[in-house]
């Protein structure tokens, strides 16, 4: 018959016979299938050649024997390279060729135990093949199939991993730290956020000291998992798991670390180190007395304008009005400096765009600055739209976060109901208890038998001009020269101190550096008698709402 007709007789019965031939020569079903596949492949190749076959079955078994001979030689070479013998004997051979006495035997056993422990320090690619080959007893073919890589790749990784273990054996003997539990010094960050945290807030995955130390190591130079593991003295398997979490963040798109093209990891957000933060903040602080004097003068000159805004409260207190505006007023200088930096220093840098940004500094034991959160609600307590906002600084604790659900907050609902006045007698006992709590935290005040909202309230239609007076302060040129002088000094520090891939977020570094200015400005205004802080840090100060019927 012609060779091209060879495939017509390869049926299930012949395949069973070929498998039996292979199994008797391997005593391993997986290896038998591997050898059998090689035989069939050789037959397929033969079927694609010209020629006649006088005895087809003799030809088939000749092919099978030739393939087995080649396969055996190949396996012999593999064993010489990777050594598929008993794991304990194989690993011990990395240390010595023969044992001479009990002391040497005990030393070798301890070394083997250390090697097994050290396997955990290998990177995933090498660790997986070592565990599969030596501990799980899998063949190279099985490992290649399971990990979807070539057999040559498996052999190379086994060879490299064994060599690495052998090189480190003596280091492990000398370095007793390897056998001790890892102890991480405490390190903390203050990390702010800007934008919509609902998209993804990577801060939520950074709460362990282990995570913080990994970030710290990657703050300047990209690191491999193995490099991080070596510096922290932690098995690489744990580092790799933590890297995946820090890389993904909450939504898989924005994490505290990013992966470089070379497979290393680098920090993915602005994190200011203590020395840098202190030096840069001192530059801002030099201008604080001048800025404070100008702010105070502006506020007192325009006090009547601030008080003339159409609030709809029963009573309007200038102290509450000033608390409402102080966050913006204190930030004017920072904004002017940012404008100069953008124009003179970072004109060539494109801003990094994402829905949410995080940025922080190493904890100094003091929380600098503050923030503001706003929430919207619809169809609440007789109002079609409600907007609430609060600022928080060292002197003020925030009432709520930006993720607040007004529909579940009874005290805020009480404040909304009391905008036009609410009779105490009309409240149920449970509502009266809620009202008492709302009074305690500054949402309400009582006047006779009526309750009124203490928070500043205005109509949404007037909201666009709420901060017009502050805008005139920004545009008035009161602090322009000082801002230009500071930007010139600060710009070089920022340009040199921020990693190239984070330059598009330089403005957040400026926000951090200027943060102490807010608290210090507030303390000056308090010392001058312009501001009165809330008792125990919680009150109507810094919290307000806008409504629409």
Q: Which descriptors apply to this entry?
A:
Arc Repressor Mutant, subunit A; four-stranded mixed β-sheet; 20 helices; three-stranded mixed β-sheet
Q: What would you report as the Rg, rounded to the nearest angstrom? A: 36 Å
Largest sheet: 4 strands, mixed
Low-confidence regions: 80-92, 94-98, 176-182
Helix count from the secondary structure assignment = 20
Kindly describe this structure:
By secondary structure, the chain is an alpha+beta fold. It has four domains: 80 residues; 93 residues, Arc Repressor Mutant, subunit A; 80 residues, Arc Repressor Mutant, subunit A; 263 residues, no CATH class. It has 20 helices and twelve strands. The strands form four sheets. Strands 6-7-12-11 form a four-stranded mixed β-sheet. A three-stranded mixed β-sheet has the order 1-5-4. A hairpin with a 5-residue loop joins strand 2 and strand 3. The radius of gyration is 36 Å and the shape is elongated.
Can you summarize this structure?
With 549 residues, this protein is of the alpha+beta class.
Itemize the secondary structure elements and their pairings.
Elements: H1 12-26, H2 29-47, H3 56-82, H4 87-92, H5 102-119, H6 124-135, H7 140-147, H8 151-174, E1 189-195, H9 209-217, H10 225-232, H11 236-248, E2 257-259, E3 265-267, E4 270-272, H12 274-286, H13 288-301, H14 303-307, H15 318-344, E5 356-362, E6 371-380, E7 383-392, H16 410-417, E8 422-423, H17 429-440, E9 444-447, E10 450-453, E11 456-459, H18 468-475, H19 480-497, H20 506-527, E12 543-548
Parallel strand pairs: 4-5, 11-12
Antiparallel strand pairs: 1-5, 2-3, 6-7, 7-12, 8-10, 9-10
